[in-house]
Amino acid sequence: MSELYMQNRELSWLKFNERVLEKGTDEDIPLYERLKFLSIFDSNLTEFFNVRVGSLTDLTLLKDVSRDSKTGMTPQEQLNEIYKECITLYAKRDAIYNDLETKLRENNIGNLKYNELNEEEKAFINNYFNKNIMVMISPNIIDKHHPFPFIENDSLYILAELKTKKRIMHLILPVRDALPPLIKLPNSNNYIMIEEIIINHLDKIVPNFEIVEKYVIRLTRNADIDLDQGSDEEIDYKEFVQQKLRNRRKLVAVRMETDKKFSEITNTFIKENLELEDNQIFVTSSPLKMKYVWSLGKYLDSRKVSSISFNPYIPRKTNMITEGSPIFPQIEDHDVMLSYPYDNMDTLIELLKEASLDERVFSIKITLYRVATNSKIIKYLLRAAEEGKEVTVAVELRARFDEINNIDYSEELIQGGVNVLYGVEKYKVHSKVCLITYMDNHKVKYITHIGTGNYNESTAKQYQDMNVITSNEKIGIDASNFFNNLQMSRVDNEYEYLLQSPSTFKKKMLELMDREIEKGENGYIRIKCNSITDKDLIEKMAEASRNGIKVDLVVRGICCIVPGIKGETENVRVISIVGRYLEHARIYQFGKGERSDVYIASADFMTRNTERRVEIALPILDKDIKNYMLEFLDNQFRDTVNATELQSDRNYKYIEGEKFDSHLYYMEITPSYLYRPSVVREEKIQNDNTSKIEIPEDKETKKRIFARILDFFRK
């Protein structure tokens, strides 16, 4: 039965976040970086409750009980297990945080409580409170004349139990986002959290009440909204999404965090007003919001913080491009690979800059999912439009928690004369494709970029992603057809070389696995992706294992296939890499060595990617780039520093052996075969029947012909 070798996705995700948390105990990692892992753990868990727990909570309200297809668990059973696991995770996080805080204090950096301050420091903080905080305080005392206020998602509040001669009341006081998260104490690198200051000045805020109990709290609400449900074709889609986002803030509560256990009176008060159960209330001694960690260098002595941080790493220029020379002819000569964050994004940005100014270029098309603040990608797309080129941008307004940012960018692009698409109804456009079309020597030519990660300069420095830029004509034609279909909201298309979800990606992956199964023991499957949840693909990998095929998987996050189950997945191996950089690339290998088929893709092996999103996968045709991909996967399985291996009991175990850090390896080394890229490739697709268009020399006739070409591509 498949249930023997499958596990629930939510519980698998919690194991992933536990691996993130455990990096806080790694003594080979600098102290400040270990504290950052705790902050990542916190933000991950908050989003998990926002989305996954929120979705399961919605499912519990339905009359028809749906069950997890892999384990048979009901939504309520899954929630019960999640809340149970989280009790253990909170205790583990608090222990790690307390240990780190002790070590940080040994380095003269401490997060102090108010009662730990000396008289000089208390005077400084009291003065700061009076001048800067008191004016921003808006207390809410709840009684029959003042109803329970709305509690914002993921915001800090002070909650107090107050007493008068006649009755018990409660105070709820928001900690304003406009306030700094912490205040540096004078003459030291110690600091105090802003909520700690406020909670210790409540007697000044409500002087006529006895303060019985006081707490710092944070509420998490369901944020899993369906941005397609209820869509009206008569309403502007952007306005519809904005309305849905306004509704998100009002959704049901799914988690309450507090810095200490509620009294019986306060517990009842909170549960009744927020409709919470006891198992949804978590007590923690760690700071409730740990986003402040990333800005410690801003508030404290930056040199001191740097001394307990990773040594800075500056991503390098790829060796496959000669710096200072035009990029177009180099890509026409050979494919170019960018491996973030070891290679920087400059080559892609310079390519767009070059394209925006090149008179030969008449069209630039790109898909955008998550974009950096002050994006140079946006800058050069706008410049291209200013230069009279046709610029088409598919902006996915439903990219979760980036919706507002994408709406803002879409408006800027539209104002700049760019043709903006809002994706496809019921399918998020998650593809990473950029197509530059130009005329050269009377021929239509293409430069196509396809990657595994976003067009985002910020995340490119932290996320490990793969990218290929090619002048291959047939790849360009496929990409051109892809954008044409996107403009017509068609997602059921087949292309000659590119694979697309939901139409061909999953089908081709299954076919390639079947091919390896037919080879028997000579078959081989190796996959690197973020998560695996698709039951059809899991069952096919189990079938391969039963037929003696070795299946090696590098899965950072959710992994619903369990290896090592006798008679089912004995030939499956699963490792997870969690380290300095976020593993984000998707690489799919079928077969061994140079004869293997290798793809990179925007898609994971998740049902949402294979069936409910528009994704693109690219076959790796260049010999040198394929060798890099294969060697890269080899080195992932050599990692003994960042890697853990999934066991048959569903737990992860650290890998023993000679110390090898795959992240450090690629920070220091570029494989020699990438210094001199191949000019002639055996795998290069030849096309001797390229049509030529004769272009007259006079400018007016040229303009008319270019207009006809543009009209052709629009159609």
From TrEMBL:
<dbReference type="Pfam" id="PF13089">
    <property type="entry name" value="PP_kinase_N"/>
</dbReference>
<dbReference type="GO" id="GO:0046872">
    <property type="term" value="F:metal ion binding"/>
</dbReference>
<feature type="domain" description="Polyphosphate kinase C-terminal">
    <location>
        <begin position="327"/>
        <end position="489"/>
    </location>
</feature>
<feature type="domain" description="Polyphosphate kinase middle">
    <location>
        <begin position="120"/>
        <end position="296"/>
    </location>
</feature>
<protein>
    <recommendedName>
        <fullName>Polyphosphate kinase</fullName>
        <ecNumber>2.7.4.1</ecNumber>
    </recommendedName>
</protein>
<feature type="domain" description="Polyphosphate kinase C-terminal">
    <location>
        <begin position="498"/>
        <end position="658"/>
    </location>
</feature>
<dbReference type="InterPro" id="IPR036832">
    <property type="entry name" value="PPK_N_dom_sf"/>
</dbReference>
<feature type="active site" description="Phosphohistidine intermediate">
    <location>
        <position position="430"/>
    </location>
</feature>
<keyword id="KW-0547">Nucleotide-binding</keyword>
<dbReference type="InterPro" id="IPR025200">
    <property type="entry name" value="PPK_C_dom2"/>
</dbReference>
<dbReference type="Pfam" id="PF13090">
    <property type="entry name" value="PP_kinase_C"/>
</dbReference>
<keyword id="KW-0808">Transferase</keyword>
<feature type="binding site">
    <location>
        <position position="44"/>
    </location>
    <ligand>
        <name>ATP</name>
    </ligand>
</feature>
<feature type="binding site">
    <location>
        <position position="556"/>
    </location>
    <ligand>
        <name>ATP</name>
    </ligand>
</feature>
<dbReference type="InterPro" id="IPR024953">
    <property type="entry name" value="PP_kinase_middle"/>
</dbReference>
<dbReference type="Pfam" id="PF17941">
    <property type="entry name" value="PP_kinase_C_1"/>
</dbReference>
<comment type="similarity">
    <text>Belongs to the polyphosphate kinase 1 (PPK1) family.</text>
</comment>
<keyword id="KW-0418">Kinase</keyword>
<dbReference type="GO" id="GO:0005524">
    <property type="term" value="F:ATP binding"/>
</dbReference>
<dbReference type="InterPro" id="IPR025198">
    <property type="entry name" value="PPK_N_dom"/>
</dbReference>
<keyword id="KW-0597">Phosphoprotein</keyword>
<keyword id="KW-0479">Metal-binding</keyword>
<dbReference type="InterPro" id="IPR003414">
    <property type="entry name" value="PP_kinase"/>
</dbReference>
<dbReference type="GO" id="GO:0006799">
    <property type="term" value="P:polyphosphate biosynthetic process"/>
</dbReference>
<dbReference type="Pfam" id="PF02503">
    <property type="entry name" value="PP_kinase"/>
</dbReference>
<dbReference type="GO" id="GO:0009358">
    <property type="term" value="C:polyphosphate kinase complex"/>
</dbReference>
<feature type="binding site">
    <location>
        <position position="370"/>
    </location>
    <ligand>
        <name>Mg(2+)</name>
    </ligand>
</feature>
<feature type="binding site">
    <location>
        <position position="463"/>
    </location>
    <ligand>
        <name>ATP</name>
    </ligand>
</feature>
<feature type="binding site">
    <location>
        <position position="584"/>
    </location>
    <ligand>
        <name>ATP</name>
    </ligand>
</feature>
<dbReference type="InterPro" id="IPR036830">
    <property type="entry name" value="PP_kinase_middle_dom_sf"/>
</dbReference>
<feature type="binding site">
    <location>
        <position position="400"/>
    </location>
    <ligand>
        <name>Mg(2+)</name>
    </ligand>
</feature>
<dbReference type="GO" id="GO:0008976">
    <property type="term" value="F:polyphosphate kinase activity"/>
</dbReference>
<feature type="domain" description="Polyphosphate kinase N-terminal">
    <location>
        <begin position="7"/>
        <end position="109"/>
    </location>
</feature>
<keyword id="KW-0067">ATP-binding</keyword>
<dbReference type="InterPro" id="IPR041108">
    <property type="entry name" value="PP_kinase_C_1"/>
</dbReference>
<comment type="function">
    <text>Catalyzes the reversible transfer of the terminal phosphate of ATP to form a long-chain polyphosphate (polyP).</text>
</comment>
<keyword id="KW-0460">Magnesium</keyword>
